[in-house]
Design a protein that fits this description.
By secondary structure, this protein is mostly helical. It folds into two domains: 79 residues, Biosynthetic peptidoglycan transglycosylase-like (Penicillin binding protein transpeptidase fold), CATH 1.10.3810.10; 76 residues, no CATH class. The protein is 53% helix and 3% strand. Helix 2 packs across helix 4.
């Protein structure tokens, strides 16, 4: 349990970003928690500015005050971007995996979760070997922490052994 902010991560991000700026690099590291990302995605406009960040802090405090952690997670999973124009778990499950979110296996859920830090860079539809490795790690963590007890029932093969996902996505105009 926390207040919606990870002050240690914020400090590390500031130091990292200052170093990158000194080197003339534009690479940035963020430190937003799920609560902050939820506030940003639900209440704010796209872009970066100090004013927008101040509003993000305000709305994060509000949702941390009035919503349960479970509610914050539900809203987050329904508004988070999984790819270009694909928002929320249900849309991502249907668009990339051609099934309802209720039908996702642990392996599917791990794959979807692993792309979240950078959904425009990493792909659910055609995961790289790096993403498959992270997916396998995530499944191991899920198993270790007991987050899915029916591993063998739903996931008959390890992620590396799965057949490639279909590369063709449904067109936006046909929906």
């Amino acid at each position: 349990k926390h207040s919606g902010f990870d002050y240690g991560a914020i400090d590390k991000a500031i130091k990292y970003n200052d170093k990158m700026e000194e080197k003339g690099k534009e690479k940035r590291r963020g430190a937003s928690t799920i609560s902050q990302q939820t506030a940003k995605n639900v209440f704010l406009w796209p872009g970066r500015s100090y004013i927008r960040k101040a509003f993000e802090v305000y709305f994060t405090v509000l949702i941390e005050t009035f919503w349960s952690k479970e509610r914050i997670m539900i809203v987050y999973l329904n508004v988070i971007e999984f790819g270009d124009g694909v928002y929320g778990c249900e849309a991502a499950a249907q668009d990339y995996l051609h099934k309802s979110a209720k039908q996702l296996t642990a392996s599917d859920a791990a794959l979807m979760g692993i792309v979240l830090p950078s959904p425009l860079k990493f792909s659910i539809a055609s995961p790289s070997p790096y993403i498959r490795g992270r997916q396998a790690w995530c499944l191991q963590q899920m198993k270790y922490w007991g987050m899915h007890l029916n591993y063998n029932k739903y996931d008959k093969k390890e992620p590396e052994a799965e057949k490639p996902l279909p590369k063709k996505r449904k067109s936006k105009s046909s929906s």
